[in-house]
Amino acid sequence: MSLEADKSLEERLAFLEIDQKTSKILNSLRPTLGELLGGVLDKFYAKIGATPQLARFFSSKDHMAGAKKAQLGHWDKVSKGTFDPDYVKGVTTIGRTHARIGLEPRWYIGGYSMLMTELVAGVLVKHWPFPFGKHHAEVLSDKLGALIKASMLDMDYSISVYLDTLEEQRKQLEEERRQFEADQQIAMEHLRRGLEALARGDFESKMTTDLPDNFKRMAVDYNETVVRLSESFASIRRASEEILDGTETIAKASDDIAVSTAKQAAGVQQSSSALQQLSVSVGQTASNAERASMAVQDTQQQARSSGDVVAQAISAMAEIEKSSTEISKIIGVIDEIAFQTNLLALNAGVEAARAGEAGKGFAVVAQEVRQLAQRSADAAKEIKRLISQSSNQVNEGVGLVSNTGTALADMISRIDTIHAIVSQIATAAKDQATGLKEVNQATQSMDTLTHQNSAMVEQTSAETQRLRSEVAGLVQLLGQLSTRGDTGRAGAGERGAASQRHAA
């Protein structure tokens, strides 16, 4: 025990007037206290067990029994009256234990009050009755006084140690707080420098790990975070540059598509206009073919009538002259029909050539019609020649009429063929007109869709240009950051500028 502790003990003993006499009196009470303490401590720890604020300090009954045993040992030292360094060491341990577990003085004082009440009562009972007289009263008073003084010394030491321990803890905590604040200030200064570097876009600077122990982990975490951020920003910049390249490609492709779509729209519009004109032309051809069919039908009927005339001429040669005149007129009509048929076939061939691939079959039919019309014209000329000869060769009239009948029969057969062909031409022309009309409608729909596509392509191109501008701004912004493995478009110039700013 130090000199200061010895002096403190002496001062306490002197103030409480605990001397050799007091120690002897306490020693004389030792048997009595030994008998009383067992029961008194049983009541004391029963009271503690019934008080939740105190019972929580004991984990089990065995724990409480161990505390009771320690109390018996301590009171045995007190009853010996030997207040020496071992006593101070023991009572100091008690006080520090109370401070460590957080036992407030009010519970300690209350417990002492209970113990003293029981012990004083027990001492009185043990020494009662006693002979009256001043001497005996002084003896009892000295015994009770010695017990109370020893208890007060014990309480004083325990509470003082408790308070001293709390003060030591407070000072220790205060010192730890000051040290923590100093360490924190150092760490915050390094953190501030790191954050300033980050604010400048420098993700390559590191925080030193030569920091107080409490902040070493912070430095490691900071550096790892900066590395991850650096890698993330580098990845973002590379991805942004790739996106920028992609948007440039898309923008160029969109522009090309817009130009191609505009050309396509113009071509489709021209095709639609041409198809519309062709549809009108084919419709007119179909109408002309239908009229030609009707004309051929009329010619067919007239030819059949001519046959009847020939039959009547055979039975009545007397009227051959009149019949010849009629036949001449009819032949003139046939010649006119052949001429018109030839013209129609010629027009049909021209229209078929305009129709291109779709009109090849129609051109063949038109050529065939022209040939038939030419032969009809030739036949009509021959008949005219024969009729002219019949005027000079009446004697040969019967033969000529017979020949004329034969020629008319052949002509009727050919006219039937022409009628069938012209009917087929009219039907085909109608079908072509209908098909071209549908194609024209589809082409017009395609024209509308192509214009819509052109508008959407232009809008896409404009949005792509806007996206390219935004991504270019992002790449430029990311280029101001100095990151690990920096190989982006920022270039050595910008990284050098960032390093100069960091050095400044």
Produce the secondary structure layout:
Blueprint: H1 3-15, H2 20-28, H3 30-49, H4 52-55, H5 61-80, H6 85-101, H7 105-126, H8 134-199, H9 213-315, H10 320-355, H11 360-392, H12 397-478, H13 491-503
How many angstroms does the end-to-end distance come to?
A: 61 Å
- Strand segment tally: 0
Number of domains: 2
Note the total helix count: 13
Unreliable stretches: 490-504
Instruction: Please identify the structural class as seen in this structure.
Output: mainly alpha
Which tags fit this structure?
disordered C terminus; mainly alpha; rod-shaped; 0% strand; 504 residues; Globin-like; Helix Hairpins
Describe the structure.
The chain has 504 residues and is mainly α. It folds into two domains: 3-187, Orthogonal Bundle (Globin-like); 271-471, Helix Hairpins, CATH 1.10.287. 87% of the residues lie in helices and 0% in strands. The protein contains 13 helices and no strands. Helix 3 (30-49) packs across helix 7. The chain is rod-shaped and about 205 Å long. The two termini are 61 Å apart.
